[in-house]
From TrEMBL:
Transmembrane segments: none annotated. ARM repeats lie at residues 89-131, 130-172, 171-213, 212-254, 255-297, 296-338, 337-380. Belongs to the beta-catenin family. It comes from the Eukaryota. One of its GO terms (cellular component) is fungal-type vacuole membrane. It is a lipid-anchor. Keywords: Lipoprotein, Membrane, Repeat, Vacuole. It is found in: Vacuole membrane. GO terms for molecular function: protein-membrane adaptor activity. This is Vacuolar protein 8. GO terms for biological process: autophagosome assembly; nucleus-vacuole junction assembly. Its main location: membrane. It comes from Thamnidium elegans.
Length: 568
């Protein structure tokens, strides 16, 4: 609440009329006189130090309630315009005023304390000096203005991590939950804001849940106040981060998903955003993944996904990513029309997280169905990945290579993917500095090589780009390579041997590096102490035997001298 200079003028008028005279001590008269002089030059006066502060403190500690009112109102107006770090000399008079039985003093002093509680250092000092106990007493006041200011101050104090546990372990927590049901919108707004500030740590979230906050927060989702809706939606979103709390949320109100889905169509953009984020956190559980789709949550999510407001895009794409994890949701999401907008978001280079969520969702949608894989390829996802993969951040590269690896599992799509030139980007990715990108790209190449009849693309890319398939196989079968990577390299060679192409297999056998590596792995010592390498040893032995048999059946002819060569 803003306090005007009217109160200072009132102080001056009372002083001129002599209203205070019979009741004032000498020190109080001097304080009033000095304070009036300071007020005349208020824009250049520091009221938090020296004589101005001592004058205010004298009035605050007075037994005269009129002087206390003047001091409280003065502190309220000063802190409305000037918030800075202060010490005990400033806070103690205000905290003393909070103990007054006069409602006007309580109201103004709690407002002043709330103003000062905006400053980070002040938040901690207020609690250390006993301010929390004083505020708890004010929260229980029958005066709505006092309640509102006290709860507002608690809201500010609760943004400091060191204060949160103290507030949660005090009577303030129960009072906040009770005041969230207040009929006064301002009190309700401050109380729900304070509850939100208490949801940023797992311990505090659990205390809130145990204190019975969930039903109140859910009931207030239908509030007509956008701020209350925002605070409650965000608080529930934070509470839903914890698996045990998600179970309690489902037990508390079976219509929670429906409420949140409705809020994605509200006028407030920040409420829409938080509703989608709350659904995202709920969708960490399989039960909610299905329920959101069944409750018709896809259309509003698609609308948010297509918006131009970054927070809405981010919240909706994060939500659809979690929903897409469930195999039963893959086709409904594709049929709703998400594929093309998701592909467009791959180019959203202003936000790496959006790109990651978009490509990860496409990968999830392609996981279980040939139909869905085909729909994603036909929508142009592979061309977009090819165009972007060299320039996107590592996290996006990881997801893009993983997506191609999933698409490459489709026997029907393999020839199409190869004809699109995916090896142009996959081969360089096997030499990326990031191991996960390397592994995903190699797995994609391995998947593409399996169960195909036409090896033309692999022959074409044998040495290009960047050393081609040859360098990939040399690197991945090298002794310096991780065992998992060696396994991918040997397994890929085995795929080439299933439907042997003479030209391709000849190229493999002509590589001393590949043949030496296969021989080394095949003859590596195995046994109980080498359990991790037993599988690759068996695989390499099988590949080695096939390659040796091929060399016997396809001897390399000596190059004959051409007829035009001179002979000795």
């Amino acid at each position: 609440k803003k306090y005007t200079s009217f109160f200072f003028l009132n102080l001056a008028n009372n002083n001129r009329t002599g209203l205070y005279e019979p009741l004032l001590q000498e020190s109080e008269r001097e304080a009033i006189t000095g304070l009036l002089q300071y007020l005349e030059n208020r824009n250049h006066t520091n009221f938090f130090d020296g004589q101005p502060l001592r004058a205010l403190a004298t009035l605050a500690f007075s037994d005269n309630v009129d002087l206390q009112r003047s001091a409280a109102l003065a502190f309220a107006e000063i802190t409305e315009k000037d918030v800075r770090q202060v010490g005990p000399d400033t806070l103690n008079p205000i905290l003393f005023l909070l103990q007054s039985h006069d409602v006007e003093v309580q109201r103004a002093s709690s407002a002043a304390l709330g103003n000062l509680a905006v400053n980070t250092e002040n938040k901690l000092l207020i609690v250390q000096l006993g301010g929390l106990d004083q505020l708890i007493r004010q929260m229980a006041s029958l005066n709505v203005e006092v309640q509102c200011n006290a709860v507002g101050c608690i809201t500010n104090l609760a943004t400091h991590d060191e204060n949160k546990s103290r507030i949660a372990n005090s009577e303030a927590l129960k009072l906040l939950i009770d005041l969230a049901k207040s009929k006064d919108q301002r009190v309700q707004r401050n109380a729900t804001g304070a509850l939100l500030n208490m949801t940023h740590t797992q311990e505090n979230r659990q205390q809130l849940v145990n204190a019975g906050a969930i039903p109140i927060l859910i009931s207030l989702l239908s509030s007509h106040d956008p701020d209350v809706q925002y605070y409650c939606t965000t608080a529930l979103s934070n509470i839903a981060v914890d698996a045990t709390n998600r179970h309690k949320l489902s037990q508390s109100d079976s219509r929670l998903c429906q409420y949140l889905i409705q809020l994605m169509d509200t006028k407030s953009l920040k409420v829409q955003c938080q509703a989608a984020l709350a659904l995202r956190n709920l969708a960490s559980d399989e039960r909610y993944q299905l329920e959101i789709v069944q409750s018709k949550g896809l259309p509003p999510l698609l609308r948010l996904l297509k918006s131009s407001f970054l927070p809405l895009i981010l919240s909706s794409v994060a939500c659809i990513r979690n929903i897409s994890i469930h195999p039963s949701n893959e086709s409904p999401i594709i049929d709703e029309g998400f594929v093309n907008p998701l592909i467009e978001l791959l180019s959203y280079d202003d936000n790496e997280e959006i790109q990651c969520h978009a490509i990860s969702t496409l990968r999830n949608l392609a996981a279980s169905s040939e139909r869905n894989k085909r729909a994603i390829v036909e929508a142009g996802a592979v061309e977009r990945i090819k165009h972007l993969i060299q320039q996107v951040p590592i996290s996006v590269k990881t997801e893009m290579t993983a997506a191609i690896a999933v698409l490459a599992l489709s026997d029907d799509l393999k020839p199409r993917l190869l004809s699109m030139g995916v090896l142009d980007v996959l081969i360089p990715m096997t030499m990326n500095s990031n191991a996960e990108v390397q592994g995903n790209a190699a797995a994609a190449i391995g998947n593409l090589s399996s169960k195909i009849k036409d090896y033309t693309s692999f022959i074409k890319y044998w040495q290009q780009p960047e050393g081609g398939i040859l360098k990939f196989l040399i690197n991945f079968t090298s002794e310096k390579s991780d065992v998992a990577f060696q396994h991918i390299g040997v397994w890929t060679i085995e795929q080439f041997l299933e439907e042997p192409n003479v030209e391709l297999v000849t190229k493999i056998t002509q590589s001393n590096e590949i043949m030496t590596s296969i021989s080394r792995i095949a003859n590596k010592k195995t046994g109980p102490d080498f359990a991790d390498t037993n599988d690759i040893h068996v695989l390499a032995k099988r590949v080695w035997n096939i390659l040796q048999a091929f060399k016997v059946s396809h001897p390399i002819e000596e190059h004959r001298r051409s007829a035009g060569q001179k002979q000795r």
